[in-house]
What we know:
Elements: H1 7-14, H2 28-38, E1 42-47, H3 54-66, E2 70-75, H4 78-90, E3 95-98, E4 103-104, E5 110-114, H5 115-124, E6 132-137, H6 149-158, E7 164-169, H7 175-186, E8 190-195, E9 202-207, E10 216-221, E11 224-225, H8 227-239, E12 259-260, H9 268-281, E13 287-290, H10 294-303, H11 312-326, H12 331-334, H13 337-347, E14 350-353, H14 359-370, E15 376-379, H15 382-386, E16 393-396, E17 400-402, E18 407-409, H16 412-419, E19 431-436, E20 440-441, H17 444-452, H18 466-475, H19 480-486, H20 491-495, H21 497-524, H22 526-554, H23 557-562, E21 567-571, E22 580-583, E23 587-588, H24 597-602, E24 603-604, E25 612-616, E26 619-623, E27 631-638, H25 643-646, H26 658-675, H27 694-708, H28 717-739, H29 748-760, H30 772-779, H31 785-794, H32 802-813, H33 826-849, H34 855-862, H35 868-876, H36 880-883, H37 891-915, H38 918-931, H39 941-944
Parallel strand pairs: 1-7, 1-8, 2-5, 2-6, 3-5, 6-7, 9-19, 13-15, 13-16, 14-15, 16-19, 23-24
Antiparallel strand pairs: 3-4, 9-10, 10-11, 12-20, 17-18, 21-22, 21-27, 25-26
Amino acid sequence: xxxxxxxxxxxxxxxxxPARTFPFALDSFQKEAAYRLERNECxxxxxxxxxxxxxxxxxxxxxxxxxxxxxxxxxxxKTISNQKFRDFTKDGFDVGLLTGDVSIRPEAxxxxxxxxxxxxxxxxxxxxxxxxxWVIFDEVxxxxxxxxxxVWEEVIIMLPEHVGLVLLSATVPNVWxxxxxxxxxxxxxxxxxxxxxxxxxxxxxxxxxxxxEEDFYKVGEREAFLPAGYKKAADALNKSKKKPPGGAGAxxxxxxxxxxxxxxRGRDKSVWTELxxxxxxxxxxxxxxxxxxxxxxxxxxxxxTGLDLTGGAEKHEIHVFCxxxxxxxxxxxxxxxxxxxxxxxxxxxLGVHHAGLLPIVKEIVEMLFCRGLLKVLFSTETFxxxxxxxxxxxxxxxxxxxxxxxxxxxxxxxYTQMAGRAGRRGLDPVGTVIIAAWDNFPTESVVRxxxxxxxxxxxxxFRLTFGMILNLMRVEDLRVEDMLARSFAEFHAQRGVMDKRxxxxxDVAALKRVNHLAAEEEASDIVGWAAAEAHEHASAxxxxxxxxxxxxxxxxxxxxxxxxxxxxxxxxxxxxxxxKHGALLRIKGGKRGGGGSEDAxxxxxxxPSLPWxxxxxxxDYLVRAVPFDSVLxxxxxxxxxxxxxxxxxxxxxSSPPPAAAAAAARALSALEKTLSNGSPAALHPVxxxxxxxxxxxxxxxxxxRLVSRLPxxxxxxxxxxxxxxxxxxxxxxDDAEYNLSDANLQQMPDFETRVQVLQTMGYLDEDRTxxxxxxxxxxxxxGDELVGTEIIFDGVLRDLPPEEAVAVLAALVFQExxxxxxxxxxxxxxxxxxxxxxxFLAGEEQLKKGLAIAPDEYVTTTLRFxxxxxxxxxxxxxxxxxxxxxxxxxEGSIVRTIVRLDEMCRDVRNAARIMGDSALYEKMEQASAAxxxxxxxxxxxxxxxx
Length: 946
């Protein structure tokens, strides 16, 4: 992917004194990236997991330090930010960390933060941005995330032009396209480099039981599918008297054609033990097992009660490490059931990793795995992105996942990201990827697609939010329309803007010349010219009315009935060509209503090789598809045709076979005879086609009236041509100006609708100035900005004590859909019910203005009260172990919600300051202090040291 013909020579010549040196030889893509950075050029690095992209980030940090400027490293999640803070600090950089709940050395020249924090800084116009030389975007492929991908686009668009960009991503098929968008948006070149070579090649295995090396069937290596290996596995499955591929077990796994191993679920524990012991003997541990639900991870690891993979020295090291890490917790928190359970697993070399774990427990698991003390880790897919911890082997427990809306097969890009954890650079000659097939044996097509299929393209997830609109209208540095036009979603439409502007300039110049000629003609004969213009205007009205009548006729019941095989139609010539008659052969399916046998014959797919020519009696005819709206009239003429003959594709590229040609000649000769004595009359919409719709009939009458009032043609034909040219040019200019205007942006209608909502609800005034209410909404960044603001302005929190106020706010930040219903009483229950009413009214207002919002659904998606009771108790001082007993939500989710809730308290506190509400400000201070304690806010081990 490198553009430099000789990277080594260029690097040596241009970078004699690198800003940073490394204890290993740099790969070509790393050298090229460093070369570009030394030249102050932006770079996009696309490479597989563990290929060494972080080297480029380190070099950007080194350059900023050398130039006495600042650099910002952004990541999609706090886990990566915390880990990178530790890593960069160990590497000797002067680093600060800014996440939602942590601020460490914000004055440092090298800052690590989440992308959302950087977005917030840009909206606020933070001073530190002036000193930033580089912004490093890690995990750029996260732009595909449906919920948060828009943040990457916002930040890239809003960054000042003096800031250089370093984009790090997994390999994606449209890296050049995305780099082109970034370059056009920032008006600077973005150089693409990277590598498709894996630092450690992979081999892919199918396994469905057995304790020997022969029980692993190699189905792929180096991203190439091995059909012979798959066949061998399928044959072995058949011989073991399991269902053959194509059996009933496939539906859950790979769709029709997959098979399930009979009784496999009953022996799940024994097969896992078999697999792990087999890999242990072959020195293929440690292994990460990816499963796609927290419950499945827990079930699998808890079933391995008799498995012990560590020796005495390792057990001691694990014990000492856990003791040191957990010593920062209070005695009751050290005895939490989850902590005790995971410690027992760790002692035996087993681990589990998912969002339901307490953050400190999750970090202990990560660190022990990185030290090689854990032999098998059962994890959800977040481990593939969040932690730099390669393993010897990776195993997929399943190849299907629930993506939040439906169960589906995992995508090739997802498989590649997780499989990339297999193989430790410098330690393993090859990484082993195992597909567990004892529950469901995947089809050949599923395996082939995962190994050889393309990664998911980077696609825009840009969408307007009320917060974005208000923030942009408040800062006034960038219009909302400019944000829309620069988004990746509009990239293809905007890419040809320069050519369109050039074409518009030519048309404007031509129109100016035509207008000059028209003025001269008008001056020579004012009366005659006025008559010519009157005719032109009347003709335009006739043409417009005729088009509306045709549209009504072609979709009417009578029009549909008349459009049968052999019907003679008048077809618009187009491009200056004359109108022509043609016999109808087929209508593309889906264009018509109705039914019946005749519909079945006339409707169908278009022949794939259209158009083709037919010759008959010295005349050439064309069989071709025409747009539905090019039909100018349905005539009374109808001729016999043989559809099968006329629609049969030519075998030699010029004409149909002899039998078809003869039939076509008869049909075409009949058509000529029909037209020899003049054009056939058009069927009258009302009299012949029985047009009954009142509005359509009125259109017909209006058309007739306009035709009857049409003035005579101007005496000079040159005038007619001149007026035609002026009309066509004016239309082209108008169309081009519209296409280049903000009004043509894809999301412009959505923007206008949202502005109406904001004006009606008091966030914007009539001239679109942000009101006090709108400024408050700009502060609500942690939950839904409208509902949060409505709760504040309605006074829902006014009379509540701090512990109940913060419990109400918890509904704005809790994200899980399924949780046991809380038991609420008194003022807290009333406040929650009032919050629901406000959310419903906000959803109802959006629906009234035209947004696709169901008010009831809006309530349930913006307010989730599953942890309201838990937060209320926590704010009162209840022990964490006790609050866990009143909900079925896992401990990690509780902690994550309360941490985000502290951010919400800060949002509301800032809103109170803007409003001048000192009582609410003080209440949020007290609420924050009440929840900010013990295990929920224990410092990250990556930050505090472990």
